[in-house]
Amino acid sequence: IRDCLAPTDPNRAAVLRYWLFTVGIEIGIIVTLIALLISTPVGAVFAILTGICALGVLATAPKVVTCIAAAHRAAVNP
User: Fold this and answer.
1) H helices within the chain, ranges in order?
2) How many CB atoms lie within 10 A of CB 23?
3) I want to staple 9 with a disulfide (CB 3.0 to 4.6 A). Which of 5, 20, 31, 61 is the partner?
């Protein structure tokens, strides 16, 4: 997803945040499932952290899509 914007684009930081939240969800799901096998309260803590990452994706995704669409539109119509 990082390559959707040019290296000089100032909106790459937003894409990085989106990507980190997405990776956090993927890792969080695995850790939550393992933690639930150990203890329900421990699993709940990791589930909450994974949920926070999901909220981060929801918060950053609209800006990422808008920035990528604008950059591609500008590249096609200079």
Assistant:
1) 12-38, 40-76
2) 11
3) 5
Residues in the chain: 78
Count of Cβ atoms closer than 10 Å to residue 51 Cβ: 13
What does each of the 78 residues of the chain score in pLDDT, given as a tens digit? Answer: 878 888 888 989 999 999 999 999 999 999 999 999 999 999 999 999 999 999 999 999 999 999 999 999 998 987
CA distance 3 to 75: 14
Specify whether the CB–CB gap between 33 and 50 falls below 8 A.
Answer: no
By CB neighbour count within 10 A (0-12 exposed, 13-18 middle, 19+ buried), where does 40 fall?
Answer: exposed
59-73 as b/e: b if 16+ CB within 10 A: ebeeebeebbeeeee
